[in-house]
Amino acid sequence: MHPLDKFTHCPVCGSKRFDINDGKSKRCADCGYEYYLNPSSANAAFVVNDRRELLVERRGREPQKGMLDLPGGFADIGETAEQGVIREVLEETGLVVARAEYLFSFPNTYLYSGLIVPTLDLFFRCYVADLSTLRAADDAAEVMWIPFEQVHPCDFAFDSIRKGVEEFLKTVNF
Question: 39 preceded by cis ω (within 30°)?
């Protein structure tokens, strides 16, 4: 089922004549309103320590509960991508990011409440001065350091995260 099929009535006038216009929008035949299904912005953090280890977490919630993931999550309305990744790292790991540096992005999908949400996942290298506050919280059931040479993209929960980890590993020397 296409995600737009879940929206059956026009959100402006309530008409049932709210039909697929193209692969990414619906248009109301009565009032002319057009709704575009754009991707939600999400972010992921690469945090490393001086022992050349990557910070990863084990997911504590569905989807993909129990799988490895990077700290991160959806951006909130009104915040920048940098603010979002800094907030997510703090919420999930207790670490305060001093600087977030954008690296690259990958499209993805995220199953939420039975709906496949298209996302655009933004990846950041995050610098943390004090690692002593590390703890698992929020969506993270566990946090751990994995040496670069033991990081395997196939162990991670989502396609975009696997691609991001693979891309990140190309930039580090083992």
Answer: no
